[in-house]
Amino acid sequence: MSGKIKVTLVKSVIGTKQNHRESVRGLGLKRLNQSVVLEDTPSVRGMINQVRYLVKSEVI
């Protein structure tokens, strides 16, 4: 797992659990439709899995 993952925030964090908002922030996402490219690590995958209903991810 040494690749990269592109993560895009596709749904607002308003009304979600506090720890889900913190996971989105931890991924580096602040605004709707913002994308970031991250290293493919188990911790990043865990955060993406926790908020999979808010984000879209693709392996680059």
Automatic annotation (TrEMBL):
<feature type="domain" description="Large ribosomal subunit protein uL30-like ferredoxin-like fold">
    <location>
        <begin position="5"/>
        <end position="55"/>
    </location>
</feature>
<dbReference type="InterPro" id="IPR018038">
    <property type="entry name" value="Ribosomal_uL30_CS"/>
</dbReference>
<keyword id="KW-0689">Ribosomal protein</keyword>
<dbReference type="Pfam" id="PF00327">
    <property type="entry name" value="Ribosomal_L30"/>
</dbReference>
<comment type="subunit">
    <text>Part of the 50S ribosomal subunit.</text>
</comment>
<dbReference type="InterPro" id="IPR016082">
    <property type="entry name" value="Ribosomal_uL30_ferredoxin-like"/>
</dbReference>
<protein>
    <recommendedName>
        <fullName>Large ribosomal subunit protein uL30</fullName>
    </recommendedName>
</protein>
<dbReference type="GO" id="GO:0006412">
    <property type="term" value="P:translation"/>
</dbReference>
<dbReference type="GO" id="GO:0003735">
    <property type="term" value="F:structural constituent of ribosome"/>
</dbReference>
<keyword id="KW-0687">Ribonucleoprotein</keyword>
<dbReference type="InterPro" id="IPR036919">
    <property type="entry name" value="Ribo_uL30_ferredoxin-like_sf"/>
</dbReference>
<dbReference type="InterPro" id="IPR005996">
    <property type="entry name" value="Ribosomal_uL30_bac-type"/>
</dbReference>
<comment type="similarity">
    <text>Belongs to the universal ribosomal protein uL30 family.</text>
</comment>
<dbReference type="GO" id="GO:0022625">
    <property type="term" value="C:cytosolic large ribosomal subunit"/>
</dbReference>
